[in-house]
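Wed. Picked up where I left off yesterday with Transcription initiation factor IIB. The coffee machine is broken again, so keeping this brief.
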Amino acid sequence: MTAAIPFPLRDPQPAKEQTPTQIQPNLNVKLLCPDCKTQPPHIIEEFASGDLVCGDCGLVLGDRIIDTRSEWRTFANDEGDDPSRVGAAANPLLDGNQLDTVISRRDGGSGAAKDLNKVHGRATAVKGERNLVQAYKEISAMCDAIHLSKLVSDTAKQLYKRVEDEKLLRGKSSDAIIAACIFIACRQEKVGRTFREICALTRVPKKEIGRCYKALQSKLQTNTSVMNSEDLMSRFCSNLSLPIYVQKTGVDLVKRAKELGTLAGKSPISVAAACIYLVSALYRMPKSTKDIATVAGVSEVTIKNAYKYLYNEKKTLIDLEAMKGKTNASDLSFDNLPSP
Ligand SMILES: [Zn+2]
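Structure written out below (tokens, as returned):
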């Protein structure tokens, strides 16, 4: 005879820690008819009434179901694409609700669809919308060309829309307005791009873009912060394939030069260019004024001129002893610097 097991049943050994798989509940939701409880359940979705009904007894288990079936018939083999009703998300930068239909250009080869598409497009196009779409396309393309982020291109588009809506710049070419908008967007988002870089994107003369920019700036009253040399430094340095520690020293030099007013009155671009010239030579990775000029878009003379000031003040600007402890600073010497 077996001894009676005392209740509650206990395990003689202390309970082992349960593995996570043991305690995980079954999360699958099964819907059963509470009346017939047949397994597997035989439940029918009645889309006409929006009810969920038991197929055996007719008990209504739920109302308000969503019809997820498509409401068009698809002849995918005949037409190619699934004629899906949903298009891209509405673009807040365009007027109108953009829910209009577009007639496909493709058909069996009769050419009728192409004509229909053209006529339909002409009949429905919102005036001015097409220009706006075209301008947005150009802004996107230009921003892509100089590797600007979507944030900048969207800002530029918003600026452009404001210019168009409020008719801020009458009689200016849209190319010049676009360039000015991108330039202001860069400034607003603190992305260092020089005026010359923006100008190189279009065939519009620099003067014209400058005029648009000035007019826009006063009319929009945007607070376009002044471009600073530190922002430009990182891009110029990476374009010249200079290592990060050179860049850092360059930024320090720019800051110090600003504090001391060594290069007061010089443009941020020439300040950055001159500092790169000095720092690259200091680290024995000299970059020629020609190389720097190409990257920065300033003349070689400008770099040499600014460099002269830096060279004369080098001992107050750069604390070599403090830099010796840092990486790759073993052969730092003012002797590396070319005389101006
Ligand atoms: Zn039932």
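Quick read: Residues 35-65 form one domain.
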